[in-house]
């Protein structure tokens, strides 16, 4: 058991909304090194002798707290001073104690239970002396606590900080009866401050409000720097988009207040929130004691410490803007878990969004460690029946699962293996993957299909009946298609790690036959797409022709939602319609990827028409401008337009088969893989000539036009 010498401690009296600071003073004479192990019920900032102990922010992150709570370990040797040292750990509510949002569907009793959770800290300071002896300061009743200047901090509503507040003398803590069985070492990527953005503009909106624009939507917080008098108040609201009149707008944040209040001290001062985060591009200065100027505001982007591995650049500025939006949308929503959005009263680990975007995610950034940690939470939260919730961590275990959402249990482990090649993840997750497929088998009302259960359907499909959030694709069709797809992937995963999957292999052809009997024709774009991409269509080329005809006859308009869109361009290319795939990618009118770019998007939108053609908003109820699912088009650009995809798991061998389109002018794409870097570039010249350049650090199977060849690592140029 971790932290065996330590006890959970808590303030000796209720603090309400005020964030407590836990304090420990110790001597550091004759030391060779020192370390700090720590975790909290809530999020914390640990400061030793006035300096943060780590760049990790919002630690310990979000996990299935009742089963998995990460413990951080820090080397604090460089922060020690001779003589007396003071460690101060301020704890906010974080995800552990923040009232969860309306989309979670919690009852009043469940909300009250979360709000009543205690503030707790457990940890240990270890001092190693010059003679190799060790001294320990575990959390116990010798620690103390005091109120901090953070008078309020909560994930959705923001933070209140009083710079004039003077903490009283620390008083003894109380012991907290809380288990240690869930304590685990840090598994996920640390959340870090990754970029600082200067304010682009500070202006008066038409209604007279002062507004700050950073030019880019981010997840993080704002640092303010100003000279003020003690007691002056700064109150700032966060927003994504101005309304069509140019005024500040954040009604789409719903019940999330998303604001901070800073009570100034005398003189020059710099401050930012430390125990919460916001999703925003714009600020409204509801209260501000001086005339605002751009140099007073810096936006600090925070996300999990993932390394960029993908690169995309074309000859079309709007398309490059889309690429940027895809990368930003991932960074903004990969904050310890893959969230749906970072700004409103939600920010949850929706499984459907994550699986839709998983391939693009693994190409853009190195997210193997990130997903491994989240998949362990998925496994920990998986219900005894094998059912997988719609969101992970699963704060709503009483709510039904859904196809395409819960199938993340199978799709994401397989994709992570394909991109990074580590079989150990499949070995970890295989039983969870199988349990999910077996669960569907156990509850369906039709053998070999998935019927008779709640389903989200093709969420936000553009062919939805009036007033519906769900597209017109038959829900049993989607559920059964994903049932087949997950079974197929489970078989592949089992074979990769030597598991017996004979029962699933026997069932798979029966499932496909039952599907074709139940759904002899495809009725919607999404139905055609799934039948092609999941290998269910009896004649995929005929199905592809029918899909292309549907799209052409509808004026080159896509009608797909969260389920169909990730595979739409792939299905077209697989069946010989890459030209139409490019038409959809480059379309600027609604609905399209570039429509949002034309409306000023700097991330990916939840709705194709989050801002409608007349400048009004789709709605204020469910209209996020930072939802990454439709950014899944990125993997088509890597795999089809640039032609880069793994020929073996982990890119031990790569296949490069570009499919250029002269409208782009050029395309430059690269992936930094576990086996080295691969780059595919092509340039289209007047008259039809195309220059291809391929650079690869691993063996490559290459197709240029109709020519197939195998290449050893190196740089190559071809003309076509």
Secondary structure topology:
Elements (H helix, E strand, L loop, with lengths): L8 E2 L9 E8 L3 E11 L1 E6 L2 E2 L16 E7 L8 E9 L1 H4 L10 H8 L4 E10 L4 E5 L5 E4 L2 E5 L3 E5 L8 E2 L1 E2 L7 E3 L5 E8 L2 E4 L5 E19 L4 E7 L19 E5 L3 E5 L6 E10 L9 E8 L2 E2 L1 E5 L2 H17 E2 L1 E2 L12 H14 E2 L1 H14 L26 H13 L2 H21 L31 H23 L4 H17 L6 H9 L6 H14 L11 H10 L3 H9 L6 H6 L35 H8 L2 E3 L7 E3 L9 E8 L2 E9 L5 E7 L3 E5 L2 E5 L2 E6 L1
Parallel strand pairs: 6-15, 12-20, 30-34
Antiparallel strand pairs: 1-14, 2-7, 2-10, 3-6, 3-8, 4-5, 4-7, 8-9, 10-13, 11-12, 16-23, 17-18, 18-21, 18-22, 18-23, 19-20, 19-22, 24-28, 25-31, 26-27, 29-30, 31-32, 32-33, 33-36, 34-35
Helix pairs in contact: 4-6, 4-15, 5-6, 5-7, 6-7, 7-8, 8-9, 10-11, 10-12, 12-13
Descriptive terms for the model:
720 residues, alpha+beta, Jelly Rolls, Glycosyltransferase, 4 domains, 10-stranded mixed beta sheet, 6-stranded antiparallel beta sheet, 15 helices
């Amino acid at each position: 058991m971790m932290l065996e010498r330590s006890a959970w401690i808590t303030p000796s009296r209720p603090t309400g909304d005020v964030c407590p600071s836990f304090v420990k003073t110790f001597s550091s004479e004759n030391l060779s090194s020192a370390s700090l192990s720590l975790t909290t019920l809530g999020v914390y900032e640990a400061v030793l002798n006035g300096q943060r102990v780590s760049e990790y922010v919002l630690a310990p992150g979000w996990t299935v707290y009742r089963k998995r709570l990460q413990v951080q370990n820090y080397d604090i040797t460089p922060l020690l001073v001779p003589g007396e040292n003071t460690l101060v750990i301020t704890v906010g509510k974080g995800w552990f104690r923040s009232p969860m949002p309306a989309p979670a569907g919690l009852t009043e009793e469940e909300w009250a239970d979360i709000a009543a959770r205690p503030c707790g800290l457990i940890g240990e300071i270890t001092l190693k002396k010059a003679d190799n002896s060790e001294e320990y300061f575990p959390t116990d009743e010798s620690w103390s606590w005091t109120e901090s200047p953070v008078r309020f901090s909560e994930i959705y509503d923001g933070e209140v900080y009083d710079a004039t507040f003077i903490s009283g003398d620390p008083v003894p803590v109380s012991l907290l009866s809380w288990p240690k069985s869930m304590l685990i070492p840090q598994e996920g990527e640390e959340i870090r401050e990754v970029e600082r953005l200067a304010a682009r503009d500070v202006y008066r909106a038409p209604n007279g409000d002062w507004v700050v624009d950073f030019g880019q939507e981010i997840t993080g917080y704002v640092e303010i720097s100003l000279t003020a008098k003690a007691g002056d108040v700064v109150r700032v609201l966060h927003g994504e988009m101005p309304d069509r009149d140019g005024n500040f707008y954040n009604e789409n944040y719903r019940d999330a207040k998303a604001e901070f209040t800073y009570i100034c001290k005398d003189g020059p001062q710099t401050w930012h929130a430390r125990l919460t985060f916001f999703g925003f591009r714009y600020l409204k200065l509801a209260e501000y004691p001086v005339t605002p100027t751009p140099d007073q505001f810096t936006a600090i982007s925070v996300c999990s410490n993932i390394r960029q591995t993908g690169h995309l650049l074309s000859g079309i500025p709007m398309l490059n803007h889309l690429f940027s939006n895809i990368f930003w949308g991932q960074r903004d929503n990969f904050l310890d878990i893959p969230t749906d959005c970072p700004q409103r009263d939600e920010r949850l680990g929706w499984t459907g969004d994550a699986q839709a975007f998983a391939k693009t995610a693994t190409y853009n950034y190195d997210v193997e460690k990130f997903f491994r940690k989240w998949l362990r939470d998925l496994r920990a939260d998986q219900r005894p029946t094998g059912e997988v919730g719609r969101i992970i961590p699963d704060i709503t275990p009483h709510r039904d699962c859904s196809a395409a959402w819960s199938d993340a249990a199978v799709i994401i482990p397989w994709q992570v293996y394909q991109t990074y090649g580590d079989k150990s993840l499949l070995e970890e997750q295989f039983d969870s993957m199988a349990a999910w497929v077996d669960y569907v088998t156990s509850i369906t009302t039709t053998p070999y299909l998935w019927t008779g259960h709640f389903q989200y359907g093709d969420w936000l499909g553009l062919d939805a009946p009036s007033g519906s959030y769900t597209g017109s694709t038959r829900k049993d069709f989607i559920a059964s298609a994903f049932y087949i797809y997950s079974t197929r992937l489970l078989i592949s995963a089992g074979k990769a790690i030597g598991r017996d999957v004979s029962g699933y292999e026997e069932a798979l052809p029966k499932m496909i036959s039952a599907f074709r009997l139940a759904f002899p024709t495809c009725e919607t774009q999404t139905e055609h797409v799934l039948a092609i991409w999941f290998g269910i269509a009896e004649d995929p080329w005929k199905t592809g022709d029918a899909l292309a005809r549907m799209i052409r006859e509808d004026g080159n308009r896509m009608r797909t939602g969260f389920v169909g869109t990730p595979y739409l361009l792939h299905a077209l290319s697989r069946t010989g319609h890459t030209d139409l795939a490019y038409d959809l990618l480059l379309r600027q009118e609604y609905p399209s990827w570039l429509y949002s770019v034309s409306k000023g998007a700097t991330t990916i939108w939840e709705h194709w028409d989050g801002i409608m053609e007349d400048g009004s908003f789709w709605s204020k109820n469910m209209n996020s401008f930072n939802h990454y699912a439709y950014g899944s088009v990125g993997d088509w650009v890597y795999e089809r337009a640039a032609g880069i995809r793994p020929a073996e798991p982990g890119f031990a061998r790569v296949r490069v088969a570009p499919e250029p389109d002269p409208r782009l002018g050029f395309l430059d794409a690269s992936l930094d893989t576990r086996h080295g870097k691969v780059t595919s570039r092509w340039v289209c010249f007047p008259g039809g000539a195309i220059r291809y350049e391929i650079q690869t650090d691993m063996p490559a199977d290459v197709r240029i036009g109709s020519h197939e060849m195998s290449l050893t690592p190196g740089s190559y140029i071809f003309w076509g």
